[in-house]
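Just wondering, can you check both lines?
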Amino acid sequence: MVVGTNATGSEKLPLLILGTAKRPRWLRDKPDGVDYKGVGKGWMTAAVFSDWLQDLEARMAAEDRLILLLVDNAPSHKVPEKATPHVRVVKLPPNTTAAIQPMDQGVIATLKARVMDAQTEAIMQAYMHGEEDPHQIKLAQALQWCKQAWDDIPAETIKHCW
C-alpha cells in the first residue's frame, strides 16, 4: 500500500494498493479514492513508481502546483530521467527511514491500527451473528476499511508526525 499526504494532513493522495492479480474480479467493487496496480509479487517496482509519479506530475501540472515528494531510498524509488517540473523528488539518506520519514513516524501505524480495529469489529459482528467462518473477509471489504481508515486519520495526527 502506498500512502501520501502533505505535511499539514489537509490533502491526502488516494491510496495505491499493490497486488499480484492484473485484473482481479473485485476491482469493480473497489471504493473510490483507492487505486490498484497488479504487479508480479505485489511489491513496488521502479515501473510502478514511475507510473505513479507521472500520474502525480500530471495532477500537479493540471492544478499548476509545485510540490516536494520525500521518498525513502528503496531501489524501486528511481527518479525518472524525464523531468517532473511540478514534483521534485528527494530521497532520504540510507537507513534513516524509521528515524526521519514522517509517514513512518506514526501515520502508517495509525492507519494499520484503524484497519485492524475495523477488522476486529467485523469479526466480532460475524461471530455474534453466528456466521460459519467469521474470519472470512472479502478483499473489497478490506479495501473499504483501508479507505475509511485513511479518510479518518485527523490532520492533527499527520501534522504531529512532522
The radius of gyration is 17 Å. The helical segments are 46-62, 97-100, 107-128, 139-152, 155-160. The chain has a mean pLDDT of 88. The longest helix spans residues 107-128.
